[in-house]
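Hi R.,

Here's the chain you asked about this morning:
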Amino acid sequence: MSAQRPKPTKFLAVSWRDIEEGCLNIAEKIVKSGYRVDVIVGILRGGWVPARLLSDYLGVSNVGALEIKFYRGVGETGEKPVVTQPLVVDIRDKNVLIVDDVADTGKTLNVAQDFLSLYGPKQVKTATIYVKPWSIIRPDFYAWETDAWIIFPWDKAETYEELTSAKGMDIEEVAQLGGETVERVRRMLRIRHEALQIRATR
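And here is the predicted structure, written out as tokens:
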């Protein structure tokens, strides 16, 4: 039985260099395991960049995406992940590698595995850069384990907005957590706010 998922009390700001190193670690583990990857399926949105990096490191050109909606906010999740975008890559009789940024509850990977099994793959394995101690799934390949809330470089603005608006943290504290200047955080939030306003008017 997995440990209970706690509310986040500490944060880990991840750099692009960390992402590359994590994916290199995963690629090395895959090669050493002897697993032949025919198709990589990245889980949108967090798994797309790692999937692309792994496709480069492993020399796999057949890459697809799977969108699964799950998260509601920092430390909050929906009851059940739902596949919201169909699979457009052929995986029948192929060895598949599912890639995501983190295995948190593990439910997303569970749903992805169940969904892909409907398409007749030969074998399916999973890979994430990070795994949480309470995840119900231990990915076949991962770089690191952490119990911190991870601030990935591709969702900084979204996370900063959540921390300042919903969680009541001030910008100075958020900037320190993310290793950013206050001015840069303000700029990210301003651009995101203006972009969302434009979308709301159409």
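One quick note: The chain is about 40% helix and 30% strand.

Cheers,
M.
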